[in-house]
């Protein structure tokens, strides 16, 4: 009995000491941790929006193996595009001035949970990052790429083990998907973790996927079972549908569910504030027209 009590006391003290050490460690490195989180978010926003700094463009151009990849067949073209998705992420991680790219090229619209709407330049958003409520407020990022507006916002929901977080980008008119990225998750390596792979993320934009079908005024998007001859072959799928991950059905089902939920939520929040000066000044005319079509 005494040995049992000693063991319980020892485990209790060990837990207390561990908790104290972890708290001290977090407080001591909180600023660095927050800075790393900020940098990671910015990297994936820039990646999803395909805002490629000159240094990244040069790195892609000098990659001989990538340049020599065949692209004659549909499959080869898709594999090359999927490779580009991963190379862009790799080169963005190596690029040292991503903050400057964000400050100079991105604008931000904030819609708080109280429906207070604000606009930020990239510089203003960057400088106030630590004070912003990224959990409860909606943030929409805008940049001009190839003479067209791109709009980006966070998507997230429950996967198999925990929450999955990423960013989705829509082209001018808010219908066509310009890019997507998933980066914060705890999905199983080799299975659900494959949402990080180039083929999975690349299929959204390579196949020019859309979030509206025919005359439906409410956005929706689906991740479903593979039907093609290779992962990401979406030619025979609906315009708002991509391949799920073989062997990771719960991850795929989670994405299938929360992508539509997120899209509908974001459109709803914007519609609620569409008459504000901030919203009207943030979106281009084609995008505002789409938003008006979706008003209840």
Short key terms for the protein model shown above:
alpha+beta; 6-stranded antiparallel sheet; 48% helix; single chain; 296 residues; 8 strands
Q: What does it look like?
A:
The structure is a single chain. Helix 1 packs across helix 5 and helix 2 crosses helix 4. This protein is α+β, with helices and mostly antiparallel strands and 296 residues long. The strands form two sheets. A six-stranded antiparallel beta sheet has the order 2-1-3-4-5-6, with helices on both faces. A two-stranded parallel sheet has the order 7-8. It is globular. It has one domain. A hairpin with a 4-residue loop joins strand 4 and strand 5. The protein contains ten helices and eight strands.
What are the SSEs and their pairings?
Layout: H1 2-48, H2 54-61, H3 64-67, H4 74-94, H5 98-105, E1 107-111, E2 117-121, H6 122-127, E3 138-145, E4 148-158, E5 163-171, E6 177-184, H7 198-206, E7 222-224, E8 241-243, H8 249-272, H9 277-282, H10 285-293
Parallel strand pairs: 7-8
Antiparallel strand pairs: 1-2, 1-3, 3-4, 4-5, 5-6
N- to C-terminal distance: 68 Å
Mean pLDDT figure: 88
Quaternary assembly: single chain
Task: State the major sheet.
Answer: 6 strands, antiparallel
**Structural class by secondary-structure content:** alpha+beta
Strand content: 15-25%
How many separate helices?
10
Low-confidence stretches: 23-27
User: How would the global form be characterised?
Assistant: globular
Within the largest sheet, what's the order of strands? 2-1-3-4-5-6
What count of domains describes the coordinates? 1
How big is the Rg? 22 Å
Order of helices and strands: HHHHHEEHEEEEHEEHHH
Give the beta-strand count: 8
* Portion of residues within helices: 40-55%
């Amino acid at each position: 009995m005494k040995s049992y009590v000693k063991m319980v006391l020892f485990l209790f003290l060990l837990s207390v000491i561990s908790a104290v050490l972890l708290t001290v460690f977090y407080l001591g490195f909180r600023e660095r941790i927050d800075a790393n989180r900020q940098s990671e978010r910015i990297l994936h926003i820039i990646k999803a929006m395909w805002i490629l700094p000159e240094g990244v463009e040069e790195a892609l151009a000098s990659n001989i193996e990538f340049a020599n990849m065949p692209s004659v067949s549909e499959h080869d073209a898709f594999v090359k595009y999927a490779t580009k998705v991963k190379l862009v992420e790799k080169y963005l991680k190596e690029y040292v001035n991503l903050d400057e790219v964000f400050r100079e090229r991105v604008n931000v619209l904030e819609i708080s949970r109280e429906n207070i709407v604000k606009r930020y330049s990239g510089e203003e958003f960057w400088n106030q990052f630590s004070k912003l409520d990224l959990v409860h407020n909606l943030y929409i990022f805008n940049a001009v790429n190839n003479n067209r507006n791109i709009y980006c916002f966070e998507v997230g929901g429950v996967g198999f083990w925990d929450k999955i977080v990423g960013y989705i980008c829509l082209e001018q008119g808010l219908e066509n998907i310009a890019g997507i990225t998933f980066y914060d998750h705890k999905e199983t390596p080799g299975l659900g973790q494959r949402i990080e792979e180039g083929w999975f993320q690349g299929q959204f934009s390579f196949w020019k996927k859309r979030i509206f079908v025919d005359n439906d005024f409410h956005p929706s998007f689906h991740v479903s079972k593979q039907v093609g001859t290779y992962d990401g072959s979406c030619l025979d799928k609906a315009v708002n549908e991509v391949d799920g991950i073989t062997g990771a059905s719960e991850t795929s089902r989670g994405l299938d569910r929360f992508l539509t939920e997120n899209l509908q939520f974001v459109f709803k929040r914007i519609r609620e504030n569409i008459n504000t000066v901030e919203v009207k000044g943030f979106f281009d005319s084609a995008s505002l027209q789409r938003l008006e079509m979706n008003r209840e």
